[in-house]
Specification:
This protein is of the alpha+beta class and about 375 residues long. It has eleven helices and seven strands. The model is unreliable at about 1-30 (pLDDT under 50).
Length: about 375
């Protein structure tokens, strides 16, 4: 006799729909990553198609089907909706990516949208994925959009713990939640390292750091959108412990996940504030650098003007004797003072007076 706890009344087997496993059904495609049927926490079948999965689950009315899909087609989701009575609004959301994290209940089926994240070391950026989960009385369906999260690890972990897997689809949901939240830890570490590098670049005067700050700030906005709603979702699940008779072990499991996601959400909030502060400091440093460059340019211009003044002053001083000498060097026969005995001393004296007057005038204006 099995020691598995009795199945709740709301998890009774579903009647077999007619023609559900027709061989010419059009839903079989490679988007089915993996499908398994479990009974008492142990895998009893690994069907290759959705139709075979439906058939094997009906052979084990007290079993559970775990179906993993990667970007399924509309026909596949409609096939699942017909088999498991999924709500059309939830199916419509699962077809489209870019949904916000949320938790909605449609009768006996729970629909959960999660945003997973992973840190790409080579690109030094955060990559976000989207996961839609349908949780019913005897089935769990995951619809993945993106590379994250890696649910194969979750499946292996659950299969290695039959007692936990025997608790049903709720246990698998909590394991998925835990995997998604644990996946945030490397992202947090990678972002913290990026922020440390950015602080060094800011004070090192790297001109490309502004773009990096902006890009990381945008990633933190996305990260915040992924983690903040998850806090409320887990609180909602916690509030439903008594109403839905959640197993005590799963309650402890969920509270631990809630603690982790709360901590992660607080770290993300701190990252956004830190990046805002760094951006302000960087703008201040850039402004200071620009002011210093403008000041240096102004000083260089001032020095250049002073040199031009000196050159212009000496050019004017030297031009005066040149003008006098040019006039008296024309050698016209009828030119006055040409044969005057005092003409030469007068010309030299005139040159000296004009040059001295110009020198004193420029000196008074501080051009020399």
């Amino acid at each position: 006799m099995s020691d598995r706890r009795p199945r709740p009344a709301w998890r009774r087997p579903r009647p077999e729909p007619p023609e559900a496993d027709a061989p010419d059904a059009p839903e079989e495609r490679s988007s089915v990553v993996r499908a398994s049927v479990y009974r008492d926490g142990r895998r009893v079948a690994s069907p290759a198609t959705l139709a075979e999965t439906f058939r094997r689950l009906r052979e084990h009315p007290d079993g559970m089907a775990w179906i993993g899909l990667q970007r399924p087609t509309e026909e596949e989701l409609h096939s699942l909706a017909a088999e498991f009575d999924l709500h059309e609004l939830a199916v419509e959301d699962a077809l489209e990516a870019h949904q916000r994290p949320k938790l909605e209940r449609y009768g006996d089926t729970l629909f959960v949208v999660l945003r997973a994240a992973r840190y790409l070391d080579d690109q030094e950026e955060v990559d976000f994925g989207e996961l839609h989960v349908f949780v019913g009385p005897d089935f769990l369906i995951t619809v993945r959009h993106g590379a994250a999260p890696d649910l194969s690890t979750v499946r292996r972990r659950m299969e290695q713990d039959p007692e936990l897997l025997a608790l049903g689809p709720e246990a698998v949901l909590y394991a998925i939640l835990d995997a998604v939240v644990d996946g945030y830890a490397p992202v947090v570490a990678g972002v913290q390292n990026d922020i440390d590098e950015i602080e060094t670049e800011v004070f090192g005067g790297d001109p490309a750091v502004s773009r990096r700050i902006y890009e990381l700030s945008r990633e933190m906005v996305e990260f915040q959108r992924a983690t903040r709603p998850l806090v409320g979702m887990l609180h909602s699940l916690t509030a439903g412990f008594a109403k839905y008779g959640t197993d005590e072990e799963l309650q402890r499991y969920l509270r631990d996940v809630a603690d982790h996601v709360t901590h992660t959400s607080e770290r993300v909030d701190g990252f956004r504030q830190a990046l805002a502060d760094i951006l302000t400091v960087n703008a201040t440093l850039v402004t200071q650098q620009q002011n210093a460059e403008m000041r240096a340019l102004a000083e260089a211009g001032f020095e250049q003007n002073e040199e031009i003044k000196k050159i212009s002053s000496w050019a004017a001083i030297l031009f005066a004797p040149t003008l006098v000498g040019t006039i008296y060097g024309m050698n016209f026969d009828n030119m006055p003072e040409l044969h005057w005995a005092g003409g030469y001393p007068f010309a030299v004296l005139l040159m000296a007076v004009v040059c001295t007057s110009l020198y004193l005038a420029f000196k008074k204006k501080d051009w020399l």
